[in-house]
Specification:
Elements lengths: L5 E6 L6 H12 L3 E3 L18 H6 L2 E2 L12 H15 L5 E5 L3 H9 L9 H14 L1 H11 L1 H6 L5 H14 L17 E7 L3 H18 L1 H7 L15 H7 L5 H25 L3 E4 L4 H11 L1
Helix pairs in contact: 3-4, 5-6, 5-8, 6-8, 9-12, 11-12
């Protein structure tokens, strides 16, 4: 095994079993786990983001869990900078670090770097966020498709943060975001070894549906009620939160809201799989194939 520093990146759809695999890998290699989940950073978002439990976090050191407040704006670029600083420290004593998450853009930022994009003035960002709250995501998606069809095809357009960021770039520069994107990959002092895990569709969808039921039993509705003052934050305009806000607004019954969470979670899982198959050099396994995963990772190290 070489002494080159390596990130073993665990990716896959929601509810597939990434957390348990990452913990087993961290224990096997005697190392730490860096979360690349765009919502688990926030201390106030716990049940709806399926954070690793206290017991799971005891089994291996975790970073970027509960690291920020929902009151902060935290972008993929912020994560890239902070995670690279952390990895520099971790690699002083470890040759392998585990990264786990379903947020493709955050993993891309860490492994490949992001393109330098214009920073939008606050009034532009505030106006777009106001439109999102007032009119919903649909009109903003239509606007993006009109002004940047290429970017529309490349982005996860169901993610409000991604759509707003693309529109910020256009409105502050007059150029579509896709015109700023380069094919160059940033040089890193480590290599990324990407392990994808997936399950048969019916099995995955059953796991997703069961997870939503467990979240509700654990008190997801009460968590959402406590987050009402922050409901316009992009991280809360996502699956599991937006549907229950609609329930609290009287637009859906609770049964309808829970059904919507399950449906939207299944759709999100499908988009995650599509993203990870398109981006990066991912080797796919069943979550239970631990010995095969270890054998393959060892061959890459």
């Amino acid at each position: 095994m070489s002494k080159e520093k390596s990130l073993v990146v665990v990716v896959g759809p929601t509810a597939v079993g990434k957390t348990s695999l990452a913990i087993r890998l961290a224990q096997h290699y005697g190392t730490s786990i860096v979360s690349a989940d765009s919502r688990q950073f926030y201390r106030q978002l716990t049940i709806g983001t399926a954070k690793p439990s206290t017991e799971e976090r005891r089994q291996a050191p975790h970073y970027f869990i509960d690291s920020h407040s929902i009151e902060e704006t935290y972008s993929a670029g912020d994560f890239e900078r902070e995670a690279l600083t952390l990895l520099e420290k971790l690699f002083q004593t470890q040759d392998v670090v585990i990264v786990v998450g379903g947020s493709g853009l955050f993993i891309k930022a860490l492994c490949e770097g992001l393109d330098e994009l214009p920073t939008a003035p606050k009034p532009i960002r505030d106006a777009l966020n106001h439109r999102l709250v007032q009119d919903g995501l649909g009109p903003l998606q239509d606007y993006l498709k009109k002004i940047d069809p290429q970017g529309y095809e490349q982005l996860d357009v169901e993610n409000p943060q991604r759509v707003i960021r693309a529109l910020e770039v256009f409105e502050s520069s007059g150029r579509p975001m896709s015109s700023f994107l380069k094919a160059e990959t940033a040089k890193r002092p480590f290599k990324c070894i990407t392990v994808g895990i997936n399950r048969p569709r019916e099995e995955l969808y059953e796991l997703i549906n069961n997870r939503v039921d467990v979240m509700m039993d654990k008190g997801l509705l009460a968590e959402v009620e406590q987050l009402l003052p922050y409901r316009s934050k992009p991280a809360l305009l996502t699956v599991g939160y937006k549907e229950l806000f609609s329930y609290l607004d009287g637009d859906l019954s609770l049964v309808e809201a829970v059904a919507k969470i399950k449906q939207n979670s299944r759709r999100y899982a499908k988009r995650q799989i599509t993203w990870f198959k398109k981006h990066g050099n991912t080797q796919w396994f069943a979550p239970t194939a631990f010995d095969h995963i270890i054998q393959w990772v060892d061959e890459q190290l």
